[in-house]
Design goal:
Structural class: alpha/beta
Radius of gyration: 24 Å
Strand content: 15-25%
CATH superfamily of the largest domain: Alkaline Phosphatase, subunit A
Shape: globular
Largest sheet: 11 strands, mixed
CATH topology of the largest domain: Alkaline Phosphatase, subunit A
Number of helices: 15
Order of helices and strands: HEHEHHEEHEEHEHHEHEEEHHEEEEHHHH
CATH class of the largest domain: Alpha Beta
Number of strands: 15
Length: about 500
């Protein structure tokens, strides 16, 4: 009898130990909060040197976490960049290499959206037991089959298109006026926001509203006692340039009106970040939450942004087009004051999140990035040194291309010759070294050309003219893009 009791005690002990281990493993999985800004300039946050735009809340995260000085997105435009972030794959491999223009369709025959064959990171994390929420801008397809709720997000509050007006009273009035006038196609920027497919009548300035909803999702996940993945997708500081009076008053010393309004819009983001952090602390989620802050592409100087010291703007394959401000903050794991100078990509977020969530990538899915958490924690890039980070933008009749490997960067804009820069020493891409190191340039161009072999025809186009060029064979012209000898600058005379 005693022997039987001992056996029972032993089995109970094993079960309890197993459950304890399981629960411990579950608890070790961090919450993941991605805060994505829209068209934020490289130098428009304090941690990247801004002097006229004040971002104390974001800067606190930077000071107490890791700042990436060479972080890139996969494309210099909003939609393709976002598709890459959520799929972990370059947009040109999916057919999403152009920005979506038509975004208000409710017809499921509309195929303008990221293919359903692609598994979003949200779906993997949802299946792994995470609460998944997205707040703000979507821009990945508006037809019902592409809706966030069908792509792994339990909760969605925001808009489906590529942009939106910020003041509800104004856009709601304009929307109703157009409805009464019988207008069949109403611009996306005026459409009502929605919550899980149902229209809502918003009352707050959009940036504040999106902060509020992200806070609600954090509290929901906390109440459920499960880890969360929340994608806070601000549409600020993307146009239209619209800011609250209280925020504008902070920047009356900025003479340029666009810059002043833009600065006020960034302040609203910063205020929101502070409120979200406060909620994380109040819900005791702060220490085990990985916060990722970045922009979807470079800023547009015509709309008030500043990418200094980078060359170029949103849409370019110069550094200013797709090199973005980015930070990681995770008190439980990441030491204060880290600076990561080696190049990383937003494509790295997908495999990094998969690893942190203790789940697996589908066997048939080939990711374009790598898990970078060990590199962040150790500050070494030994497994990342030889890889290249690419960007390619389709223009009418040609391709703009950029590629970074270690300290070196190749760039081709329009039909200009290829250029080579050491961007560690020359961040502004001012000193072309192609004549000095022609063999290095050729090798990097050849590697970039190889990268394009897996590309597919775009599923949609920016304009009818773009589509005509593809149909006629005048795009993508990769053979001409990567025709090295013809495009190299002649060697300098000794």
């Amino acid at each position: 009898m005693a022997s039987q009791c001992n056996k029972i005690k032993f089995y109970v002990f094993v079960i309890v130990l197993g459950l304890t281990h399981f629960c411990g493993a579950q608890q070790e999985r961090p919450n993941i909060l991605v805060i994505l800004c829209d068209d934020l300039g490289y130098s428009d946050v304090g941690f990247n040197g801004s002097t006229d735009i004040i971002t104390p809340e974001v800067d606190k995260l930077a000071q107490n976490g890791a700042v990436f000085t060479s972080a890139y997105v996969a494309h210099p435009f909003c939609g393709p960049s976002r598709s890459a972030l959520l799929t972990g794959r370059y947009p040109h491999l999916l057919g999403t290499g152009y920005n979506l223009v038509h975004n208000s369709s409710q017809d499921d025959k509309d195929n303008m959206g990221v293919p359903l064959s692609e598994t979003y990171i949200s779906k993997l994390l949802q299946d792994a037991g995470y609460f998944t929420g997205v707040v703000g801008k979507w821009h990945l397809g508006a037809a019902p089959k592409f809706h966030p709720n069908k792509r792994g997000f339990t909760d969605f509050y925001g808009f489906l298109g590529g942009g939106h007006n910020y003041f509800p009273k104004k856009y709601q009035k304009a929307y109703q006026e157009q409805l009464k006038a019988g207008k069949k196609e109403i611009v996306d920027y005026l459409h009502p926001l929605e919550h899980n497919g149902k229209p809502v009548k918003e009352t707050e300035y959009l940036t504040d509203a999106f902060t509020r909803e992200a806070i609600r999702e954090i509290k929901t996940a906390t109440d459920k006692k499960i880890p969360f993945f929340i994608f806070l997708s601000y549409n600020a500081p993307h146009v239209p340039l619209q800011a609250k009076t209280e925020d504008l008053q902070k920047y009356m010393g900025i003479k340029d009106e666009n810059r002043r309004t833009y600065a006020a819009m960034v302040s609203a983001i910063d205020r929101g970040v502070g409120q979200v952090v406060k909620t994380l602390k109040e819900t005791e989620q702060f220490h085990n939450t990985l916060i990722v802050f970045l922009s979807d592409n470079g800023g547009n100087s015509d709309n008030g942004a500043n990418n200094y010291p980078l060359k170029g703007i949103k849409g370019d394959t110069w550094e200013g087009g797709y090199r973005v401000p980015m930070l990681f903050h995770w008190p439980q794991k990441i030491a204060k004051g880290k600076r990561i100078d080696f190049p990383v990509s937003a494509l790295d977020l997908y495999p990094t999140f998969v690893s942190l969530a203790n789940t697996n990538v589908p066997k048939d899915k080939k990711l374009s990035g790598q898990d970078i958490m060990d590199a962040v924690l150790t500050g070494t890039d030994k497994n990342l040194k030889n890889r290249m980070i690419y960007a390619l933008r389709y223009r009418m009749g040609y391709c703009d291309v950029g590629g970074r490997q270690g300290n070196w960067k190749i760039t081709r804009m329009a039909n200009d010759p290829w250029r080579l820069y050491n961007v560690s020493d020359d961040i502004g891409e001012k000193k072309d070294l192609s004549r000095k190191y022609p063999e290095r340039l050729k090798k990097m161009i050849a590697k970039t050309a190889e990268w394009t072999k897996g590309f597919v025809r775009p599923l949609w186009f920016f304009s009818l003219r773009d589509e005509e060029l593809w149909d006629s064979g005048e795009m993508p012209r990769y053979d001409q893009t990567f025709e090295i000898e013809r495009l190299l600058l002649p060697p300098t005379k000794k």
